[in-house]
C-alpha cells in the first residue's frame, strides 16, 4: 500500500494537525502510534479523518501522545502532494485582572439563628427557576461534595411548607448569600424577595453577599440594581460553575479555621 506519512511527534491534547493537499482528493488519517503500526501492516485500525476533497484539512488531536498523519489514494485516481504542521492548543481563558479574590468578602458566621431548631447553613442560593439546572443545582452539588452545607429550595421545601417562612429561615440562618443574577431573575417575584433579604443582612454585616452573573451583562445588572453592579462578582461567562464553587468552598473553610482558632484562643 502506497502512502505518505507525516510524523507529528509528541503532541498535546487540544492541538490541531493541519494537512495541506495539492492535486487530487486523498484519504487523510490521524492516528496514534498503536493504530499507525496496525495501519502500515494492513491490519484493522482506528483513525480520525477520511476522504478529503478540499485543503487544508484540520484534525483535532484528542489526547496527548505520539501522533502520525497518513495520506493515501486507496480507491482513488490521480496524484497528490501533502505537507503537515501542528497548531498548539489555545491558551487558557484570560481572567479579568479586576476579578478580585473571594477572600476579600466578609465571612463571619451569622450572629444568631432566627428559626428555632433551624440548622445554620454555609450557603443560601437565590435563583430563578429557569437557572436551576444550568447553575443553581450543579453549584449546590459541587459545594456539597466539598463539605459545604447548602440551602437550595429543592433540597429544603416539602409539601405543606410555607415558602415565605422557609426562605426567611434560610436567609437568617446562612453564612453566605449567593445570588444568581440573570434576565429571568429580574423578572421574578420570589428571587427579588430573597434578594431584598440578602441585601439587608449584607448591609447590617450579618451575611456575606456574592452575585453570580449568568447570561447577563453589566449594563443589564446596572439597569436593575446599580449597587449590585459594583460588587465583587463571578460570571459564568468567565468561570465555570465548578471553579466558582471551589472558590466559595475555600473561603468558607478559611472561615471555619479562623473561627476554630478564635474559640481556642
Strand content: 25-35%
How can the largest sheet be summarized? 5 strands, parallel
The CATH superfamily of the largest domain turns out to be Toll/interleukin-1 receptor homology (TIR) domain
CATH topology-level name of the largest domain: Rossmann fold
In round numbers, the mean pLDDT is 76
Helix count from the secondary structure assignment: 9
Order of helices and strands: EEEHEEEEEHEHHEHHEHHEH
Instruction: Tell me, briefly, the overall form.
Output: elongated
| Total DSSP E strands | 12
**Derived structural class:** alpha/beta
**Radius of gyration over alpha carbons?**
27 Å
Widest β-sheet, arrangement of strands: 9-8-10-11-12
Q: Identify low-pLDDT runs.
A: 106-116, 154-164
Protein name: DUF1883 domain-containing protein
Organism: Streptomyces pseudovenezuelae
Amino acid at each position: 500500500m502506497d502512502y505518505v506519512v507525516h510524523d507529528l511527534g509528541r503532541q498535546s491534547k487540544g492541538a490541531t494537525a493541519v494537512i495541506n493537499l495539492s492535486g487530487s482528493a486523498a484519504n487523510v488519517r490521524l492516528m496514534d502510534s498503536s493504530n499507525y503500526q496496525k495501519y502500515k501492516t494492513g491490519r484493522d485500525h482506528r483513525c480520525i479523518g477520511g476522504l478529503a476533497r478540499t485543503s487544508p484539512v484540520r484534525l483535532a488531536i484528542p489526547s496527548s501522545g505520539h501522533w502520525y498523519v497518513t495520506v493515501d489514494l486507496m480507491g482513488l485516481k490521480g496524484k497528490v502532494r501533502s505537507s503537515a504542521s501542528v497548531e498548539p492548543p489555545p491558551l487558557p481563558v484570560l481572567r479579568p485582572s479586576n476579578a478580585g479574590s473571594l477572600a476579600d468578602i466578609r465571612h463571619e458566621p451569622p450572629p444568631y439563628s432566627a428559626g428555632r431548631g433551624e440548622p445554620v447553613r454555609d450557603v443560601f442560593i437565590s435563583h430563578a427557576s429557569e437557572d436551576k439546572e444550568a447553575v443553581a443545582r450543579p453549584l449546590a452539588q459541587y459545594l456539597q461534595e466539598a463539605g459545604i452545607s447548602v440551602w437550595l429550595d429543592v433540597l429544603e421545601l416539602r409539601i405543606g411548607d410555607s415558602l415565605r417562612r422557609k426562605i426567611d429561615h434560610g436567609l437568617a440562618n446562612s453564612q453566605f448569600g449567593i445570588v444568581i443574577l440573570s434576565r429571568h431573575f429580574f423578572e421574578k417575584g420570589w428571587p427579588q424577595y430573597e434578594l431584598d433579604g440578602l441585601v439587608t443582612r449584607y448591609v447590617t454585616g450579618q451575611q456575606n453577599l456574592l452575585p453570580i452573573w449568568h447570561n447577563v451583562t453589566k449594563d443589564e445588572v446596572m439597569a436593575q440594581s446599580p449597587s449590585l453592579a459594583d460588587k465583587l462578582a463571578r460570571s459564568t461567562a468567565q468561570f465555570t460553575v465548578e471553579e466558582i464553587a471551589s472558590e466559595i468552598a475555600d473561603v468558607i473553610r478559611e472561615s471555619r479555621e479562623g473561627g476554630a482558632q478564635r474559640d481556642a484562643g
